[in-house]
């Protein structure tokens, strides 16, 4: 698709997303009209945001893509990145519609973006940009309209500025319009580790379903040791798994007897390099993908498991913490070799499910304890994992994957909502 609503949208990412959507529509036997709806956003808003940078005005380009709201308010992050395009933003918003649908939460999908390298801005300039984004899009946002959250390049502080700006314009506090806010400003402590925790609940559920025993005693390797990877390692270890490898761009630490995850996190947060961990063997960054492990969690970036290295992967279960870490060619190879992949759309949904829980708290001006919130998140992740497993066993298509099952479930829920509303 080279243009949407008259705007140019060349993007390989968008083309790939539409291919994935088309495959799922075919596997699930959906009507063509379902593809027609989901292959384009309902609304795209492009805005100019003037900010005084180093004394002179720079005008930044921003977008909000409101992809589909059949299931509820649009929901998805805001990305600050120098190379983001409208086409990429549409792809990301499309994936949010599917992820939120699969998660079983009452949200449609959306995504926002600003073409900027946030690292080049001073704090005050970044604040002005965040506030300018909200001023430009105020009428399109709202707790029951469109609820943004952080994504690449944005964080809880930026959400705090945004919720403040929105509340100022509204003339009253409206906490539920942004999620993943700081704990002190209507946020929830579980948010920090929600994605990594969710990945491990999904891993535990699939281990039980596939092999009859959970993570206890299983060997786990984690590739990528940022927010997702560190907390996945932490919860895997807490649930009794043996974390045998952790890796970041500095290298892999491998210890078949198990790594002290608290120590590894402490070292990573102190020096920025996991390779400074005292002990274990020191290997190359990608070696965490190839070590002897029962479960592999790719939690770094996209396309890490691809045609050139897939034959070296030894794990029997791959749980995608990162978005898009397994290429389609690699997935085909792994599927033929009996490896199960728990897809990103299911495995890393803990963050957005936590956003939903924060929104529910904010709408009622109440808070759950950390334990209660985590318990709710865990139950949703476990339940969703089981639903996907059941769907997978129902699919009669040759070489169907768990990803196919997840996407079919996601589309089914949106399709039902669109039918009930009389859209299709
Ligand atoms: N943080 C979330 O809530 C969240 C939610 C959903 C999906 N994700 C996805 O998870 C992935 C990681 O996100 P994050 O927030 O943890 O990012 P992050 O920046 O905190 O961490 C990324 C980590 O990956 C490592 N890394 C990058 N390239 C590597 C390589 N080639 N080899 C080894 N390590 C490498 C980095 O050193 C870093 O430790 C992304 O794909 C992201 O889209 C994150």
Automatic annotation (TrEMBL):
Binding site for NAD(+): 195, 227
Chain residues that bind substrate: 75, 99, 355
Keywords: NAD, Nucleotide-binding, Oxidoreductase
SMART domains: ELFV_dehydrog
Entry's Gene Ontology BP terms: 2-oxoglutarate metabolic process; L-glutamate catabolic process
Signal peptide: none
CDD domains reported for this sequence: NAD_bind_1_Glu_DH
Family: Belongs to the Glu/Leu/Phe/Val dehydrogenases family.
Known partners and oligomeric status: Homohexamer.
Name assigned to this protein: Glutamate dehydrogenase
